[in-house]
Amino acid sequence: MANIFSRIKDTVAADLHEAIDQKEQKNPISVLNHYLRQCENETEKVRKLVERQYLLKEEFNREYKEALFLADKRKHQAEIAAKAGESELHEFALKEQAHYEERVARLSESRSQTSRQLEELEQKYEEMKHKLKDMQIKRMELMGRENMARAHHRMNKVVEQNSYSTKAFSRFDEMEGYLDRLEHQVNSTYHRNTIDARIAQLEKQLKTEETNTVS
Question: What is the spatial distance between Cα 68 and Cα 90, in angstroms, rounded to a whole number?
Answer without folding.
Answer: 19
